[in-house]
Amino acid sequence: MSNLLSSSIGKKLLMGLSGLFLMMFLLVHLTVNALLLVPDGGEFYNAAAHFMATNPFIKVMEPMLAIGFLVHILWGVKLTLENQKARGNSRYASGNKTTGVTWASQNMLVLGITIFAFLVLHIAQFWVKMKLVGDPRLEGIDITIGGVSTHVENAYALVNYTFSYLWVVIVYIIAGVGLALHLSHGFWSSFQTIGFSNQIWRQRLSVLGSIYAWVVGLGFALIALLQYLFYQPV
């Protein structure tokens, strides 16, 4: 196993699998965030946030998610540096660009670093406050879940207040575009790494990847923008 992980194929396989895992998480996260746009004062979103915070399965998945992010980031940096070292001076030869190579595929490390910087901000703004230090806006409220009155944290108030700042929204829009570009290459690349790709499927996965990437990336950006424009805290 250690020989596999230390080999080029093993590293790429780990990158592909961790990437697929994180892409599934992004879809779930986007679905929950979309509830911020339900015009009910945040009740639906708070119910979903309460479920995510108290569900035993989610509690087990949280450390796995953190490991997935770390593996993907560390192995991504490692592979990029190794590839640059292997190419040596050839990357500086002539000004001709390689045909069929997208800008995103050539700048995955830069895009990854941008997303990582945003992730640190995102965790500081929400996860740290919700899980560790608290925030006055999280003061509990009563909502109805399945016909039963339930006391929950007001996660909506914290998110809604955070998105009332224009600079935060601008950061989310930039991060959303960066995420879309990163995913547009990473989607089909992950499937290719695990062997699910050929000439026919490469084209199909490329199209599906572009759709997925821009729906997810622009989805997060649009939610932040709409919160700022139409859901200002009272």
Secondary structure layout plus pairing:
Elements: H1 2-6, H2 8-34, H3 43-54, H4 56-87, H5 103-106, H6 108-133, E1 141-145, E2 148-152, H7 155-162, H8 166-193, H9 199-230
Antiparallel strand pairs: 1-2
Helix pairs in contact: 2-4, 2-8, 2-9, 6-8, 8-9
Question: What does it look like?
Answer:
The chain is mainly α and 234 residues long. The protein has one domain (2-83, 117-230). It is built from nine helices and two strands. Strands 1-2 form a two-stranded antiparallel ribbon. Helix 2 crosses helix 4 (56-87).
Q: Would you list the SSEs in sequence order as H and E?
A: HHHHHHEEHHH
Query: Helical proportion?
Result: over 70%
Q: How big a fraction of the residues is strand?
A: under 5%
Shape: elongated
Radius of gyration: 20 Å
Q: Major β-sheet, in short?
A: 2 strands, antiparallel
Query: Looking across the biggest beta sheet, what order are the strands in?
Result: 1-2
Number of domains: 1
* Helical/strand content category: mainly alpha
Q: How many E strands?
A: 2
Given as residue ranges, the uncertain stretches (5+ residues, pLDDT < 50) are 91-96
State the distance separating the first and last CA atoms.
Answer: 56 Å
Mean pLDDT: 84
Number of H/I helices: 9
